[in-house]
Amino acid sequence: MKLSIGLIFCLLVLGIDGQSWLSFLGEAGRGTRDMWRAYSDMREANYKNADKYFHARGNYDAAQRGPGGAWAAKVISDAREGIQEFMGRGAEDSRADQFANEWGRSGKDPNHFRPAGLPSKY
Prior knowledge:
mainly alpha
């Protein structure tokens, strides 16, 4: 629901023309894949204290795609944190995750959160 409202908002209010609209959607799709890749890598690595790095990396990679990727990263990050808070996860941890999400989306180096010893594959 959020996705469709966001897309309609961009189309109507922001006045995105046909070509820009297609570009935005492509960026959003690629950004979504970037977020999924970071999540998959986090699960595969299963490395202690690495979650903030993967949050920042997924948001960074997605935002590098352009406005559509940054939008997708924000929607996915906000939804993920909202669900986790609803399920009873601590608000402090959620704030720390959101800080890492915003760090990455703003273009700052996600390696700031990289834990020592995390394999170079990630």
